[in-house]
Design a protein that fits this description.
mainly alpha, two-stranded antiparallel sheet, single chain, elongated, about 575 residues, 26 helices, 9 strands
Length: about 575
Amino acid sequence: MLVSRFQKFLTAPEDHRFSPRMIFWFTLSLVFSISFAIPPLQKAFSGEYLIMDDARQHLFWMQRFVDPDLFPNDLIADFYQSITPSGVSGFYHLMANLGINPLILNKILPLFLGLLTTIFCFGICIELLPIPTVGFIGSLLLNQNLWLHGELTTAVSSGFSYPAFLSFLYFLLRRSPLGVGICMAIMGNIYGPLMLIACGVLILRLIQWEKGKLHFSTNRQDYIISSVGLGVATLVIIPYFFSTSEYGPTISAQAAKTMPEFLQEGRTAFFNSDSGLNFWFKNSRSGIRISLNPPLVILGFFLPVLLKFPRQFPLVEKISSQINILLYLILTSIGLFAIAHLLLFKLFLPSRYTSHSFRMILAISTAIFLIVVLDGIFQATLKQIIALTSTVIFSFVLIFYPFLVWGKAFPRTAYTIGTDPAVYQFLQQQPKDTLTASLSLEADNLPIFSQRSVLASWEHALPYQKGYYQQIKPRVLDLISAQYSPSLDTVKQFIQQYGVDYFLIDQNAFTPEYITENVWFKQWPDQGKKALSQLQGKQQPILLQSWNRCTIYQNQLYRLVKADCLIK
């Protein structure tokens, strides 16, 4: 009797959406979502100069929402403002007008993005198999994956994409044209790759397989929903065809193959030397990148096999016919992945069409697989002890696996901690048009923490848009030349050409070891050889000759050198 009740609590279908059992598992799902968000939230507010890694790149310019005079005539800020999706920038702008600083909002948002992700993932699972534990397991697995990889903590475009896409799937399953249309508009203004995937799903769902034959859907509602969704997507896409960017065009694949920026040591390594399976499956930019964390999600691949055995697993009969939506997702994702490779960089990076969608697919399909199998074990009355034991073990693994295996690495925060508050505070006190030049990786942090411009930085040197990168690359090459040149005229010309106010220089910048390890010289080894030759010449570089006289601040890592002092 007790076992029977336990079985019902875990695996019995539920007809009422607001039953006590449904509310229990839904609430538990939200509790876990919040518990995963708390450690990153605590970490986020544990120091003043601390920010999510990707936010350094995509968020720094949004400080203009608080102070419009920041980053005047700043190429980098203007470029990143131009490529930030309007939905993301508009939301941050709205919140800034309400008094919430973008840097503070960025730290708070992951909690709410996680909750929205959980709500819609739970709803999708219930639509496909109306058993509350399916919703709980699906949302839990997805949360574990996202918090391990820091997908939600970014709170920029990719972080917004999960609740946006899941909400689209939910309203599609609920057959709501209005919901689908709104979600398509949101996705189109937040994360384009997922909107294209959604378009593919809307098209494929009109083609059905029945009795060994393909035919078009005979349901009028299907055509209404697809028409609304595709119509909204068209309205979102059209402006892109007629707009021109001062930072275009996009780099071609042929040109990229000749650029060190796209090779193994480059800023956006794409064509690595190990171009076999790693290129197609593991590479963060070129590969499919199917995440199998936690490893339990590998069971999701076997759901199609399970569907062939309804006699052994009775719950198969309860699975909605709309389960095909997962197949449409797979086909569309892989199809767009292939197209993105064929039109390389025109549709951004191929991995963006599979890495996000497969996380959702595997979490949902694994949840359905586990409950169907567990119910099948319970149905075999002689195996109830096995069923109970399996449930206990499975529950332990499901809930505690991330903490046991990943330990303190879960949830992943990926926050960057500023290494030199004194430099940030000093630059904050300087005029708002102050410009700092640096080959140090610390240059990545200056815009977000000091709210002052940098000439160039590794983090912001994306080479995809030729109009932008053709301005960034000469800056870095000229900076390398000036930093290691023994010619005062070269240094003077550099300072005057770019209006540089300060140099931020690593303390070991004038050692052979530094030139060997610095990311810029790894990308451009010829520049490294030239700098090393100048360093070993008879006359020292001007910056090395004068940096003791012109240093206004130093610590064990850096020197902040006043530029005009060098040429006096």
